[in-house]
Design goal:
two-stranded antiparallel ribbon, 4 helices, elongated, 6% strand, mainly alpha, 2 strands
């Protein structure tokens, strides 16, 4: 897939007068789009950047709890008897909007 992206960059980049740029925090790397190797390098590095950002985003906790504790607390608090309440206490209702 990365090779196909590089081929696409090589074909469309010069015609559209586009210069691929990889924006890092303090540095912006520019690549030539008319050659295959720089296009491939841009494709690989931009994909690696997306993977790294997504990986650290998944690791970042939303609060002070580690991810396992958050999942356990959500699973423990979401029992079927407490998640859906029915009117007049007759058991779970059949609506899907949790209005009861």
């Amino acid at each position: 897939m990365l090779v196909l992206r590089a081929l696409l960059y090589q074909q469309i980049g010069p015609a559209a007068d586009w210069t691929p740029r990889l924006k890092l925090y303090f540095v912006v790397l520019a690549f030539r789009s008319d050659l295959f190797v720089p296009s491939l390098l841009f494709s690989v590095l931009s994909f690696a950047r997306v993977l790294i950002v997504c990986y650290f985003w998944l690791l970042a906790p939303g609060d002070d709890q580690p991810a396992r504790q958050r999942v356990r607390s959500i699973a423990e608090n979401a029992s079927p008897s407490t998640s859906v309440r029915s009117p007049a206490g007759r058991g779970p209702c059949s609506c899907c909007c949790r209005c009861c």
